[in-house]
Design brief:
Growth Hormone, Chain: A, about 150 residues
Amino acid sequence: MDENKISLRTKLAIVSAGMISFMGILVETSLNVTMNTLSNQFNVSVGTVQWITTAYLLLVTIMMAAMAFIMRKFKFRSIFIFSATAFIVGSIVCAIAGTFWILLIGRMIQAIATGLATPLMFQIINVKIPSQHVGTYNGVASMLTSLS
């Protein structure tokens, strides 16, 4: 077997983790243009709505910082399944949120997923991709996160 060959499974793992990362960053970024609408919808101040962004970014950062520990304790597959499930559950909670606080909880669940998926994508690249292709894959992954 060619040691430079990258398996379809590895490529799909990178794409899948990348999609969660992309969606997580995209929903965080897009929140900035909805603050007034959310303020009116939930009858709270814009300052209160800003807590969604603040708490989201804080939790993403905490999860990313904890990933070194998490990756030592759990397999990539388990982390990915948890991340994907958390993102779906968080999205459903956000979709059905009738109050600001339920929306905030849904966004926190999404933040956990994003905080896990983003470093997971780069770790899969650094561990599973042959060294002569790591730069290309890291560049594409960085472009994906920047695009969102």
